[in-house]
Amino acid sequence: MRLAAMFLLLALPVHAETAPAATISAEIGRAGLAATQARLTALATPSDADRFARGGVTFLRAIEVTFQQRYTLGLTDRTGMLPLLRLPLNDNPHPAPIAPAAVVAIFSDAATTLSAAQTDLMAIPATSDFSVEIALADLWFDVDNNGARDNGEGLAEILGPAVLGFDADPSAALPVVRFDVADAAWLAAYADLLTGLCDVIRAYDPTEPLTRIVTARAALAALGPIATDPFLGSQGGLDSIDLMAAIFAILNQTPDAALMAEAQTRLLAMIDENRQFWTRVAAENDNDHEWLPNDQQTSALGIEVPQGIGTVWLGMLADFEAVLKGEKLVPYWRVGGAAGVNVGRMFTDPGPIDLAGWIQGWAALPYLESGPLISPANARAFDNLTSGQAPLFALYLN
Hints:
Elements: H1 23-31, H2 33-41, H3 48-73, H4 100-122, E1 132-135, H5 155-164, E2 176-179, H6 181-203, H7 207-223, H8 240-251, H9 257-282, H10 309-324, E3 330-331, E4 339-341, H11 343-348, H12 355-360, E5 368-370, H13 377-385, H14 390-397
Antiparallel strand pairs: 1-2, 3-4, 4-5
Helix pairs in contact: 1-2, 2-3, 3-4, 3-6, 4-6, 4-7, 6-9, 7-8, 9-10, 10-13
């Protein structure tokens, strides 16, 4: 089985769709996300469909703004280690100088916008019977902030190569998806997931380490040409060596405890919202252009979703919850028996993450304790059910 689609795109031209999409979809295609968000925000008495549309557009707008900020700076995380910075964009021929403080601003702005999206989505009653149809071909990101849809700015063009490894055909027919109240919980969960990750990055503020590395790189360049990137073969800007050094230095700082606690809260909320989704979708008896189907439905994206995946995924979420709360421990490679890392305490009592110290053990000791270890059984069941495509399905399921 091959995934034909994935998170927020994700359709290869295997499913030609001619059903008309709702007005909101055409509005996005014509006017863009920013203008559509502005109109929806001005609504005095939004319906549940309006709230979903506003939450969804605000979610996508959060992603679009990160693209615009990155494009301005010519910034991309070529290591693939940071969320929101890893998706490929068209090159900016005239980027602004890298400003270390601008990096944390990307995550701060995204967290604020994603929180607004989550608020709208969670305000929709669980019993609501709304629907919003979106033609995925209408979705695009104004990466260069010029107000026009240019080549390379379509949803599939940006996300397709990164997620599936294919070059999207902009003329290919993409499906129409009918979103409903179950999907509101799914998208709220994704908003909380990304906000939690943003909070972790903000807690380990990258500004000072990046300033140090940018300054050092400039000093090295003054002594002579800097060697070609040994991993990517690129020159100019920060290379993979700079970025990996930055990540090591960023982690080896004392994080903001309040932001780490907020990140834990967001991740736990994501689990709860996921459970709401699976409860709601299990009660559906239609089969109408589904985003993520139950066992009696089919996906509009052309994905073959294995039977029983919801039950197995909820088991994975229960494990994740137990780890976040410190009720189950994560095995540590140098300790056997019933002892491991209390990940929950890394959020409630956070400290620097010295990678060498975690490998040897001295930096891990404050979080090592005796207790029940998390079982790999649910993860193995999920991997078996998805035929070895667990990472891609995890991205889809959230």
